[in-house]
Amino acid sequence: MFAQGIKTVLAVSVVALLLAAPAAAEPVTLKLLHVNDLDRIEESKQRGGIARLMTLVKRERAAGGNVIFTHGGDTISPSLLSGFDKGAHIIDLFNEAELDLMVLGNHEFDFGPDNFRARIAEAKFPIISSNIREADGTAPKNTIDEKIIEIKGVKFGFYGLTTETTPTVSSPGDITFLPAVETGSAKAKSLKGQGADIVVAVVHTAIDVDMALARANAGDLIISGHDEHLMTFFDGKHVVTESNDQANWVVITDLTIDRTEEDGKVSVGWTPSFRMIDTRTVVPDPEMAALVKGYTDQLDTELGVEIGTTETPLDSRRATVRGQEAAIGNLITDAMRDGVDAEIAITNGGGIRANKEYPAGAKLTRKDILSELPFGNKTVKLELTGEAIRAAIENGLSQVETGAGRFPQISGLKVTANLANEPGKRVLEIMVGDAPLDPAKTYTVATNDFMAAGGDGYTSFGSGKALVNAIDATLMASMVIDYVAEKGTVAPKVEGRIVLQ
């Protein structure tokens, strides 16, 4: 009887403990499949492109569970196709892909605010924007400020941010961009107040801003674009991820969420794991590949025409055109200077985009030139003082270390600079022909309309007089095509136009 009594007491005690224990629900899982900086719809070197991405999206969706497919911005531009249809094709293809959520990148504004508004009006997927404002202070039409998604009792709150540098690096007109960290902090607090268990910031911001958002507790997960890094970061409290570019790699963040309830209070804990998918291992989705081919075939017919031959190698790789004198930069600026009969030409290396090498003897096509100059920029002609030109070159050399797109490719000048000096004091000498640049003298300068409007920090161009304005100007790409076609054979080379010490 005594032993029987102990067993009864123990049984009651165990039941009591079980009743007192927190009630744990079955873990909730979520897959965040993220892509960013994807403007090239076709694959390159058997990697990237929308068809391979679509296979991955379909595979993850078919595997079951909860999948949210996000885009970190920079997609409407600057591809070759976008130079013709201003990005309409990319919206069409992502509509087909049934994208779940997209934040806006700076390149969504490359063709101006009216085109931006037209493109987002065509999107059938949600575009999230928390820090962009029209001139009247309202959010752009056809965007959402935030989104809460509930999965098995767990609430995920989403908001979006676009880099504050957009007015400098693109052409948003009178559209403004609120401070990212301040806005993000307020949005995270608001979403938590609305019951969000986990806050996800889908952002197109530089990595220092991404990390600042994490430090400010402006989101549990920061899924980003803009820097084109392939990265995952977790400090035990915050996640920061980015998926390279062009869907060459895709980062999938797998979340396991434990939701427990004790004494009427609910607590949520989560654990991330990461998959970096090299899309070279993924077979293109045939349906999406057919849609992509329809667009690329149309272009190939029109643009595959050869226009001339280069006797010398050309290098348009990002590190080259943004960090040193480049033969292709010399070709482009020579064509610009010739096209408007200017003494000097300056263009930003970041506007040269194909990121490829051409061997000596390569046949150049219209498509090659348009791939290098996809933005649809025009060549304008300004009258500027030597002082303004020097300020422009200082600006162009001010961020060489970070590979900024403002690096100057030039014609008609020889620049000697010391990068050990602080920005703004790097230029040692500028020669125009055989004479030193005269600060008080005026010169005629060919540049692109983006820079002439102060883009990439070229604010000193605003002091100039427009001799050929953007309304009357010719497309840069057309000018280079005509220049190469007229000569038949070109032989640009690095010749000491920019000497960096």
Description:
The chain is α/β, with parallel strands linked by helices and 501 residues long. The protein folds into 2 domains: 23-292, Purple Acid Phosphatase, chain A, domain 2; 304-500, 5'-nucleotidase,  domain 2 (Alpha-Beta Complex). Helix content is 31%, strand content 30%. It has 15 helices and 30 strands. Strands 1, 2, 3, 4, 5, 14 and 15 form a 7-stranded mixed β-sheet that branches. Strands 7-8-10-11-13-12 form a 6-stranded mixed β-sheet, covered by helices on one side. Mean pLDDT is 93; it is low at 1-21.
How far do the termini sit from each other? 96 Å
Topology-level CATH name of the largest domain: Purple Acid Phosphatase, chain A, domain 2
**Class by alpha and beta content:** alpha/beta
Q: Characterize the main sheet.
A: 7 strands, mixed
Instruction: List low-pLDDT spans.
Output: 1-21
- Overall 3D form: globular
The CATH superfamily of the largest domain is Metallo-dependent phosphatases
The CATH architecture assignment of the largest domain turns out to be 4-Layer Sandwich
| Share in β-strands | 25-35%
What's the average pLDDT?
Answer: 93
